[in-house]
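Might you be able to consider the sequence and fold that I enclose below?
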Amino acid sequence: MDYHPYLTNDCLIHIFSFFQEDDLIRASIVCKEWQEAAETPWLWREMCLQRWGFCNIAVLGSEHGKQAWKSYFLRRSHLEQKMTKGRSGGDYTCKSLRGHTSRVVGCVYLSGNSLQLSDFWSCTPTVCSSSLDGTVRAWDVQQGVQLWCSPVQSPLTGMVADGRQGGVITSDSTGLLKAWDGQSGQEISFYSSASPQCTLLTYSMDGSSFLSVGTSQGSVHTLSSPSLSKLSSLVVCDTFKVNLLLASPDKKWILAGTKGNMDMSPKVVSSQSVTSPSEEEDPLCQCLPVSGCSAATFLPSLPARLATVHCKDHSHTHHNKVLSVFDIIIKKTRFKSEIQVEQVEKFELVFEGRTSDILLEGKGSSTLVIAAHRELKVYTVKGELICSFKDHTEPICSICVDSFRVVTASRDLSLRVLTWKTDRDKGLTLESRYHLLGGSHSMSRGFSNVVCDYSTIVASVEAVDGKDVLKAYSFNS
């Protein structure tokens, strides 16, 4: 093939758009014109934006040298190719993180590989785990080594990361909450919730970090973080434990409720009214017009849009579930403001087997990922079933959803990796790729939880001898 010496950059970009990364490298040595075009930062910027409309322009647009966009494109496409194929030994490495002497009850990223960084591939991910053995442990995911371990205390029951402060917060069986420094593992502060079971939620607003604590008495305490000073308290479901607690992507709204009573409705709460409470006014909240909620999620690209899975027409059977979508707005009058919840969509869910434990996550502005029993399904918010999968032989216990993939963890001791793709007819859909295995069934009872950053996956394995292990999968960029 002859290459015309006067091809414009626009023509070259159009041609390059059909190339794979290896082809682009080869094209750069064909002749001087191709080489010059292949080294143009503007070309690689256009290639990045064409392939990933969500890539971080602000970071890569800054002064990182002429090769910033090219390096980003080649590294990211190479990494995604590895994550798509998932070949053991070549595409990823697996480390077993051992040290806990009892069940692992929480696992969170303290720091991870993020697409918000131009050199995301060079970061070293760190996770923290908490256990019934009363310890918090920090781990280097890629090296598979323990970084620090907290002193032993009462059995831990939960843990969340405070990303802004770079630490973690734990709850134990006595209701004691503690904040830990992520670098040293030193205790920073504590707070007694007087609740043996706590549901924890961290979020940041206006440069400050907060912790909301759902208690077994039906209240939500809001504390500052990491000082754990109490700011407010709100009764959500009197006498029933608050175990449904999440914040909207913009942190303006909090959903709080219980899965323990099929007749109770969750509440939407203004986070501003509980983090900066008024002495004259009660916190601003509103009940959802549905009861018996078993799962909920906010849509990432529409932070005031909420999806919930709940009972159908006051039916308490496990086979009758409905998904409703609501828009949340503030209505202001001369004298007060109030929350209004408007239902915009509603459709029935159909699953095989018992669906008491439902997992729900959102993607973008109109896609919902739902797992129940052994099934994984993807719906639009209007109720159109996009795709469904039955890759597992035992129930799915945890899912992780991001912009590139979905990872499911199952009691069958496997993780299933699925990647997003755009189909010409169906639009956005999922493609099932491969399994990641967690070990031997003679030694383990299955996975219990999974968390992910962009290039790693960490999952907890419930061990037969009671000494749970973390499996850390690092993909090679």
Notes: The chain has two domains: 9-84, 93-279+357-475.
